[in-house]
Amino acid sequence: MLAYVLLWMVLWAMVGGVMTPRIYARKDLDVANTGLAGALMGAALGPFGLALLWWRSPKLTGRWLATPGVLAVLLFAAAFARTYPGNLCVSNGSFVVTQVVNGLILGLIYGLMALGLTLIFSILGVVSFSHGEFYMIGGMLVYYMSVVWLPGLNPLVALVGAALITFLIGVVFERLFLRVMNTGQVERPGEYAILVTFGLAFFLQYLTLALVGATPKKAPRFLDYPRLDWPSPENPWLLRMRAGTVEFLDTVSIATPRVTAALIAMVMLLILMWFLYRTWIGKALRAVSEDRQAAAVTGINPDTMNTLAFGMGTMLAGLSGASLVQVFSWVPWVGTLASARAFVIIVLGGMGSLPGAFVGGLIVGLVEALGAGCIPDPQRAAAYIPAYGMVILTLVLLLKPTGLFGREL
Amino acid sequence: MKRRLVLWGGAALGILLLVVAPFTFLHQAYLVHIGIVALFYAILASSWSLLAGYAGQFSFGHMAFMAIGAYTTGLIGKFVRLASAPTGTCTEFPLGGWYLVLQNATGPNCLERGMAQMPPGSLIVQPPILVGILAGTLLGGIFGWLIGVLVLRLRRTYLALFTIGFSEILRVAINAEIDITDGPNGLELDPLFPNGLTLFGRYFEPTDKLPPYFVMLGLFVVSMWLMSWLASSRFGLFIRAIREDQEAAAALGVHVVRYKVLVFVVTSMIAAAAGAVQAHYIGVITPNILLILQMSLVISMAVIGGLESLVGAAIGAILLEFALEFLRRSFTIGTLTVDMTTWRLVFFGILLMLTLRFQRNGLIHPLLERITRAEALRETVAKRQAPAEV
Hints:
The structure holds 2 protein chains of 2 kinds. Chain A is mainly alpha-helical.
């Protein structure tokens, strides 16, 4: 049944996506977002929704996009529940909640990393293809500092060290290789930036592989949580905390390293928001992203801001890697998947949009967690995890290249 | 006129060198093997330079088209058979007096069950390798057309992201669909000449390296000829115009959509053909050829050779492939063992970044320009000096 419903949805989404812009164009109306609205409407309500859309052809506000979007997701969920009544995602509520919370926690950290990428894009106009490598280096540095070089070092100190080092690498790279983009020393700077950051990714990944080898590393958890039962030790229905897991309401059980990572990400987000909106340098950064020349006129040096933004971007990637090294095992090529995910997030959220990166991160985290948990054939589901994000990326690029919060092109 | 002579002479000399090379002191199986791989990368790097350097379409999905070619011919070899009588158990289509049989991927093999019911003496044959390679090339072209149409609206970064996405989805799907593609273990393919080959009275084993070398060399020469012809024709002019300024090109009457799609189709067909031949030569194809590393190698070769020069990219690929192979040897300084299998790639990355930063036109391309334009340079200098003497 699910297959038929999917076929129906995809078919009408394609009809809607292709035909709606033409009908709007024929009626001499604004065609912005028509492809997306048509596709969503077709997926949610089939021919009826499309008939309504084409007959009335309303001005496409956010409501005309959100309502069919939600309806389409609900329709899919209902069909899924009917087809697989025994699936854990349908029959077991606490499993779903656990997956959702885990997805949101990871999404928060992915969002932090994507925030770095979007910061770089909004100021340099460059998508750094080496972002994932900084994520990997951040994790490696924490592992080496707290386990190999200085055993017993508090991992949180190592975290700060990793942030500083990734910041410095970013700054040096920007000064050596990206500064020339604005001085007219390279032709076609946009393409130069793609290739040179790609080259950096290649270099960093193999340098790390040559230095540390291919065996997976796993840092011990940063914090051991105290044993805590609440409201009472006999009946801890609200909260049961152990060194390795935290359980809320007897249903949601989360590994503590993930909680620590989420806390670090939240603190970093707050610091970043404070920095960008309350300090002079932060305001200068945002000014450069709005209008480079106007900012230069008011006495902000755009080149310095470029360097700073690139360093901060790489530092955010390093930090998210550093906080996840206690959750996942770490190999020199973890960055490839992470950078792919960061691309998905910033395209979904809208290139250069800070809230977009955050919301996009949460969505991608959710989709990955639910996708991995719910798809009936678990082995195949696990194998397809890297593809979910890429499917989102492809769809967004085709239907709405500006993303959720992006400026119109 | 002189320049044209130099170009043709250079091309003839280069081909002659490549033809004669395996019969000279270089006649060792290992060296011929590297030669085949180098030619394979040369085809990929030069077709990528046509796509990225000439047309300005920075696609990171070139290896995906290569893999489509390779997997198509591999899957045809694994699943498609021609039978002289209907099996009754498989999916099959009549084809002339024969039947095109598709075997099933899961469950008991339908062909083996069907053979029991077939009339005695009926034949089951595998389609020839050439058919698989042609089908792979064709499918590569179809996917190139599809991707070309989908990315029409996307530029630069968006295009790069989209093509990475396409390549990754393909890699993950091949990895996951183990029943069909054999997943990470890799799909096994027949050699290019499964029954060996007799040429000029000499018999070559199926594992002999010389026939695949000449097949790859032939493909290389044909694709280089095709691409140079395209690049020097109106097509090349138009795609360079689109690269420089799409709107201006369209305003001057260039059919932007047609040429953008066409360049995708041509380059992906060439990549797919190279992939199909290479897969048959190696004998196994794994999803790892879709890793970003492989794409980085092709990009580095094209950039170091010369992004906007087909011949430069090809020579760069051949030189770098040999360099990579000879740098494989690890060595020891005192107690420290340097594992060159990884470090050579580190140096490669540094070389790529430095080339991009300081030698935008690559390392090989300016040398070629010097040679082919030496005469023009002398003439210009002579012309400039002539009035001074008067």
